[in-house]
Design brief:
The protein has eleven helices and twelve strands. It has a domain of 205 residues. 30% of the residues lie in helices and 16% in strands. β2, α3 and β3 form a beta-alpha-beta unit. With 368 residues, the protein is an alpha/beta fold.
Length: 368
């Protein structure tokens, strides 16, 4: 997410008789929720829902920031549609210390089959204990075993020193292990080196091979190469200082398609992805690609006016759901679509009007 902004799924494939009718294909009637008690829809419904999500259709997605002790249910997951596919926690959500949030996370993961990721802003400095009179670089050397190195190199394959590699792998483990211990389904790396931090000698984002080492270590815990079933995603500047070798390590690439006024913008974004990972078939990359609108700004309106490929004018959140990548003149499946600060929609539409419509659009197309 931009520094300034920081702060899936209608069912179904016809997996069994009656399955399509059992799922969230049509928006549920608006019902103002006054408690945290979740309505039990029965195990058959949830079993079908989990099985459908496991097929990896186009999924509904959201970056979510809850707030402990918040009076409004905006900070609760409880009204989010069961059919959401992936929720990436951005902040203010602490299931390890808050029993209500722990129960919410358990419900979506275990009952609904939703994948819950944890977002990490990579361009933050390595954590250090401050000492008066010492620079960050000195602290990095003392506390992480870092040694000095060149600033942003012109050569994308510039060597990384043994001490730097050891520090980078240690840093990656320090991020990964708490996420695994916390019971999350994966990690979402927010990577924005050109927004800030990329030129300092003790960060990763402006350096091709440092990023490769970081993702290589993360791939032991998350992603297709880990064999764990936990997901690994990248968002933000997903092609900046990212070598092609990283592509096979990723389950999803999430584009911050904020203020998106037309399909051509989305086409351009996925072309950037194709160019970043030229050795991976385009159809495979498209199925990893998720696009998201900014609901920190547009939760009440659904976004800016967006022109679709066939000339419709719709809200941009709806446009993201309608959009499909085109390869050799044929539309193909994308990974999904969603919103940033999805929880802001609760203050306008307590049934999550727009994310529900997005899920339904993609879900109905999955069943055609």
């Amino acid at each position: 997410m931009n520094r300034k902004l920081k702060t899936i799924i209608a069912c179904c494939t016809v997996m069994a008789a009656g399955f399509f009718a059992a799922c969230d294909v049509e928006p549920e009637p608006l019902e103002i929720q006054t408690s945290l008690q979740k309505i039990d829809k029965g195990e058959a419904y949830y079993a079908n829902l989990r099985a459908w999500k496991a097929t990896r259709p186009e999924l509904g997605f959201g970056w979510f920031s809850g707030r402990t002790g918040k009076a409004s249910l905006q900070g609760s997951m409880r009204n989010i549609p069961d059919s959401i596919g992936i929720i990436s926690i951005w902040g203010g959500f602490s299931p390890d210390t808050d029993p209500i949030q722990a129960e919410e996370m358990y419900h979506y993961q275990t009952v609904c089959g939703t994948k819950i990721l944890r977002t990490y802003l990579l361009e933050s400095l390595f954590p250090v204990v401050k000492e008066e009179g010492k620079t960050d670089l000195q602290l990095m050397q003392e506390q992480w075993g870092w040694d000095d190195g060149a600033l942003r190199p012109a050569d994308r394959y510039v060597a990384v020193t043994a001490a730097q590699e050891a520090a980078i792998r240690k840093f990656a483990r320090s991020i990964a292990e708490p996420v695994v211990a916390g019971g999350y389904d994966g990690m979402d790396i927010d990577h924005e080196p050109n927004v800030g931090g990329g030129t300092k000698p003790y960060v990763l984002g402006g350096y091709w091979n440092r990023m490769l080492i970081f993702f290589d270590e993360m791939s032991k815990y998350f992603g297709p190469k880990s064999g764990t079933g936990r997901l690994l995603a990248i968002d933000g500047e997903y092609s900046a200082y990212i070598l092609p070798e990283i592509g096979p390590m990723l389950d999803y690439v999430i584009s911050q398609a904020y203020n998106c006024s037309s399909y051509s913008n989305l086409d351009s974004r996925i072309n950037t992805l194709y160019n970043a990972f030229p050795d991976i078939p385009k159809k495979e990359l498209a199925a990893k690609f998720i696009v998201a609108e900014n609901f920190e700004s547009y939760a009440g309106s659904g976004g800016v006016t967006h022109t679709t490929r066939d000339g419709q004018r719709v809200e941009s959140s709806i446009g993201l759901a309608l959009w499909q990548p085109v390869i050799d003149d044929e539309p193909v499946q994308k990974g999904g679509a969603g919103t940033y600060h999805m929880e802001y929609e609760y203050n306008f539409f307590q049934d999550y009007k727009y994310i529900r419509q997005m899920i339904n659009i993609m879900g109905q197309r999955n069943n055609e």
